[in-house]
Specification:
Helix content of chain A: 40-55%
Oligomer: homodimer
Radius of gyration of chain A: 22 Å
Shape of chain A: globular
Largest interface: A-B, 39 and 38 residues
Order of helices and strands of chain A: HHEHHHHHHEHEEHEHEHEH
């Protein structure tokens, strides 16, 4: 009798171990939101299901800032641009007296940020152009290798969301092609997307600068120009998807009003669809912000998610862990 | 003795049969150009080779018109546009008197074509905008299902090059990711690229029109606008590659001066590279044209291919067959 109980307990333990090992989303709590993801994937991958989708059409698009990695207190790419301006300042003595550079270099962040677009655009332009894409990639990688978040004190590439990494891998293991569709600069994101997310450069869609092709000493080169070619945000997201992918996603993941049109576009398609918002409601482990945040505002999207029954993930309640272990 | 000879002959025949069956490029004659392709692929896929390239970086880009399908006497997409204008004419009575539409509708092709860009752009614009991308795809597919080449009398999708279809499949079976990088409209090409070439929409890069996102009766839709967003030709090709793929190809395939910058860009990269021009020199089975052709001119490219030892494929000598069997 005792022996049979022990054997039973052992089998039960082993079964649970196997289950735990085979759970592709271990950082997600066992609740309705996790089940909604699993049900969707089971449904579209089951050939016997009316909702079956052939692998070629299993397109899933992910916003980056606030959806795959942290975006507070300011977008990582903006912090990169600020640091880059400081690095370049000795070569640009004129910046000492020319706004917005002068405000930034004097550490007058309040006046600098108050400038809004008038402050942001020149900083982004000066830090993102005047070099080849290859050189830009090296500059970004070098910065990411050492720059640390002001309060979390970790490398920015360690501030990716562990549950989302699992979700990306889970979708890919089910035949999905995962894309990043983000307002960030496409070449900035490509510098870490393959390593951090397993998303190759050709599956990263973002805002684009103009480029110039020229021959120098018989060698062809590309040069990043200070002009904007395409802004991949808000209504730009479905346009970026159509232009770059040419197929409507069946699943889309975002965290802000900048993703609303992508989610609308995705879930308005025929057949089974899945739209998900990551809701930043964890003031202890990350940050709590939504309707009134300057960075990653989620206001209209929260209302529409409610009306349309999109999945809204609570970082506080749905995620066992936020960031990968140190 | 006789028995041994027969067995030997049988074995020889079987070995040849096996060889023939296993040849992934059966429409290519056994010569130096076929060998150059095979050597390149063997080299970059052999982990023991100094030229090994990991699969993620095995990017191959193909021009479309004149490289994957026929482009004479005029580009297929231009023929589509002309036919579309004729179809739409009853809804546009003003076209009867407005050039270039009037010239086209009156059948005055000489005067129409003499207009050059002034004739081409309004025709392309009127035929490619004012609808959703989904509707445009249907329009193109319907046209391709019935329109026939004026002299070959076959459907345009049957005027793809059999040896190039084999080459695309051969590269993919060796871990390459094949892209189309062509001056043609990206959404025109996507209407047949997956079916005809096995290239999914997200791996088709082409010229782009602007689009608009809007909500109509609560439904999101995209609308194709009559403005050009990007021209994927000449210097635009390396730019399109960098913007859309974010990685320099290790192999590029073209047939005209419009592909020259793509080939320069590809073969200027470090490590093993492969650049190939398809030379239209078969007046009997296809067309013979190069330095003086208005469509698909190959002049500067022919000189540079010679200097840089790029592979120049003779359709006449290298290809056993041009088009797939009827």
């Amino acid at each position: 009798m005792m022996k049979r109980v022990i054997v039973g307990l052992l089998l039960f333990a082993l079964a649970n171990l196997a289950l735990a090992q085979s759970d592709p989303l271990p950082s997600w709590n066992e609740d309705a939101n996790k089940k909604a993801i699993e049900d969707f994937v089971a449904d579209v991958t089951d050939e016997a299901s009316a909702d079956f989708v052939r692998p070629e059409e299993r397109i899933a698009t992910f916003d980056n800032d606030g959806t795959l990695w942290a975006e507070q207190p300011i977008y990582v790419e903006f912090q990169f641009a600020i640091d880059r301006i400081k690095t370049l300042a000795p070569q640009h003595p004129d910046w000492k007296t020319a706004e917005p550079f002068s405000l930034l270099l004097a550490g007058n962040m309040k006046a600098f940020l108050a400038g809004g677009e008038k402050s942001v655009v020149p900083i982004l332009t000066a830090s993102h152009s005047g070099m080849t894409p290859e050189n830009f990639e090296i500059i970004v990688k070098d910065w990411l290798a050492t720059a640390r978040h002001p309060t979390k004190k970790r490398l920015y590439t360690q501030l990716v969301y562990q549950p989302m990494l699992e979700l990306l891998a889970y979708l890919r293991s089910n035949g999905f092609k995962t894309f990043i569709v983000s307002g960030g600069g496409v070449e900035f994101m490509r510098a870490f997307a393959e390593h951090s997310y397993g998303v190759p450069p050709e599956q990263v869609i973002g805002s684009e600068g103009k480029m110039k092709f020229e021959m120098r000493d018989g060698q062809p080169l590309l040069l990043k120009l200070p002009d904007v070619q395409f802004v991949d945000d808000k209504a730009g997201k479905p346009i970026g998807i159509q232009t770059n992918i040419g197929r409507r996603p069946i699943a889309a993941f975002g965290n802000s009003d900048g993703d609303l049109q992508m989610l609308q576009w995705t879930c308005a398609g025929s057949g089974r669809r899945f739209c998900l918002y990551v809701h930043h409601d964890d003031a202890v482990r990350e940050w709590a912000y939504d309707r009134h945040s300057l960075v990653g505002r989620l206001d209209l999207g929260l209302d529409e998610a409610s009306v349309k029954h999109w999945t809204v993930v609570s970082m506080k309640d749905d995620w066992k862990t936020i960031f990968p272990p140190e």
